[in-house]
Amino acid sequence: AKYESTHTLVKTLTNGTTALVASDSGKLIAADITGGNVTVTLPSAQVGLTFRLIVHKSDTGNDEFNINTAVSTSFFKGGISHSHDGGDNASVEANGSSNYQLSCVDAEAGTEVTVVCDGTHWYVSGRSVSTEPPTFAG
Known about the structure:
Elements: E1 10-13, E2 16-19, E3 28-32, E4 38-41, E5 50-56, E6 65-68, E7 76-83, E8 89-93, E9 101-104, E10 112-117, E11 122-129, E12 135-137
Parallel strand pairs: 1-3, 2-4, 3-5, 4-6, 7-11
Antiparallel strand pairs: 5-10, 6-9, 7-8, 9-12, 10-11
């Protein structure tokens, strides 16, 4: 009870597609991709919505972690850093004008993405730990 007023709620997702809702804002979204691909659809754009999404898994499968905006006119702005145990590092940027899908192929534990909405678009930052760099599309 000591930390009850300041604790972070956790929402766990497993394989399949999940649509987040505005009341999920502020929660840690824990995506368990052990059983297969996980796709998250963000709610309709509203000022201040914030989601921190992390990936965890307990297998070596090549599963994907995907984040989509609710509509194709609400774009990602910002970027994701990419790393792999071989020391490969890169930055992948959303173009801010047509990208509304983020795909982290073969995501591994340690993949973490934060998205914050300005009422129209989603500002994205984080890191992808994977053999493949993430991609923005739309």
